[in-house]
Structure formats: structure tokens, C-alpha cells
Prior knowledge:
Elements: E1 2-3, E2 7-11, H1 17-24, H2 30-33, H3 41-50, H4 55-58, E3 61-67, E4 74-84, E5 89-96, H5 105-119, E6 125-131, H6 135-143, E7 147-158, E8 161-171
Helix pairs in contact: 1-3
Protein name: Diamine N-acetyltransferase
Keywords: Transferase
Organism: Natronoflexus pectinivorans
Amino acid sequence: MIKNEELILRAIEPEDIDILYQWENNMEIWQAGNTLVPFSKYQLKKYIESSSLDLYQTKQLRLMIDLAEQNRSTIGMIDLFDFDPYHNRAGVGIMIHQAYRGKGYASNGLKLFTDYCFNHLGIHQLYCNIAVTNQPSIELFTKNGFQKIGIKKAWIKTMKGWEDEAMFQLINDKK
């Protein structure tokens, strides 16, 4: 497990299927994850089974975020996606359950995950794509050292029309 005093980042367990089912089918957060259709429990079961495969096979890694206190509530998840082993880069995304937002958990989890990616996995750079209207996510990533490197115009189709998306990156300058 990857942990500090406050949080634990851990592998997905079969027991996580109900919380994943709830979160993955929450239409309010679909836009951030580019999701268009709901997930079945069967699909999630297969995903959980394949999550034990090697990062170099799947090109992704999802970890659950738990509070380190005794009851170890699961409060979110963090993803490494589009892992490119040749260029040694990957995308990162994070989701914290609404009840736990605004308490510093996302920042703490992102720092812990970034440290793991850079110092254990040896990744050279992480990037993320954020809708320009998603100010909390922009603040989270910039606070943690990610720099805005560009804007993709009219990139995201929403119910209200087209929206720009900003791209951020963090380079591991220790490598």
C-alpha cells in the first residue's frame, strides 16, 4: 500500500464493486471522465479482475483512496491512464466523493500518487486535461505543481454547447 499519515492508496478489491458501481454511474461526474454510458456490475467485475494485470499490459492503474484512520473509509479513487512506456508519461485523474471534498484529501492524495509515480514507477511526466470551467480541479493541479501548457478549443461537448479544455503537465525534474 502507498500511504502517509492521512491516506492510503490501495489496489481495487472485489468488495469495491458497489462503490465503483455508484461512482461510475453518477452522471454528474461523467463529463470529467469522458463517460457517456452507465457501467454494469458485470463490466465492473471484469474490470476489477483485470486490474491486477501489469501496468505495462493495461497502460492504466486505478487505486482507491482510503482514510488511514481505523474505519478506513473509501473516499475516492485516483487513476493513471494512457501510460506510454516509451515516452515514460501518463495521464492522471482523481475523484473524491462529494462528502469529502474541500478538506485537502485530493491534494494529499495527488501528492502521494505523484511521488509514487515519479519515485517508484520512474515516470518522467504526468499530464491531465481539465475543462476550463472546472475551477476546483484547475486549482488542485496547479497547487500541486502542474503547469498549464495549452488550451484545446471547443474540445468538450456539453449539454450547454462546446467547452474549451486546458492541458496541464508536471515533469519529473529529478530524472
